[in-house]
Sequence to fold (293 residues):
Amino acid sequence: MAHPGGFRHRAAALLQLLLPLLALLAIAAQAGDRRELRLVSLSPAISRTLATLGLADRVVGRTPWCRLPAAIPVVGDLYRIDYERLIRVRPTDVLLQTPASGLDPELRRLAKVHRWRLHAWPHLDRVTDVRRLIRELPEALFGGAPPAGVAARRDRLLQALDAALKSGPCATDPGPVVLLTGTDPPLAFGRRTYLDDLLQAWGLRNAVQQDGWVTLSLERLARLRPATVVWLSDRPTEPPAGLRAAAPEHLRVLEHPDVLLPAAGLPDVAQALARILSTLPGCRSTRTAASPP
Fold:
């Protein structure tokens, strides 16, 4: 009969041999999950979020407007897809925003034939939509168990977004604000848009009370009589000359690469917008308000 002590010794020795092997298998399995991912993004906002989550190296197809390496092939966009190119890049997953008309039946058919996984988000208009995208994207790609690094980046993004909503720039009301961007005529961020959500969270007033993105002529802008106009651009540009003439005294310019993109860069955009609004004459900063007299 074997001595119990000898059995325990052999079992402990075997376990010591197996532990490194099990660790290597776990690492290989996780690496295998990532190697299998070949992502096509048909949305600049989704591409931006993938990059921030550390998954840009998994993208094999993009739109012309995605800020990703130029070597990644362009396969189309939300409304027009080059299906020959899409097939050639051999995706495992195709990510997109759902158009108003619904997903293209041809995309559904090819996804079934080639076993692509389709991931579609119906709206990316509000802060809640951005939060949902950040939260759901890793789980969708990794079956509910994202790698530790991806999960950590996701959690940091969500925390930064929540913090941005809580830290408003003004303890006093600086008057109604108009947020404009560069079309002719300009396009304003109305109610129920992600930048309006920031204003509402900070207790500030959007002078444009219509929902969505609103075409705003200079004449109509003048009739709104906003206290402040913020000109928004994702690249260095000058506001239109007519805007400088029609806008109130306090015109501000916000240039930020993510300002027109409801995606993972929104916490940085919120900080930049808060800094600009905090310089308004009618804005007494929250920091000043909280300090003792």
Remarks:
- The beta strands are 39-41, 59-61, 93-97, 117-121, 177-181, 187-189, 213-215, 228-233, 251-255.
- Residues 36-166 form a domain with the Rossmann fold fold (CATH 3.40.50.1980).
- The first strand starts at residue 39 and ends at 41.
- The radius of gyration is 25 Å.
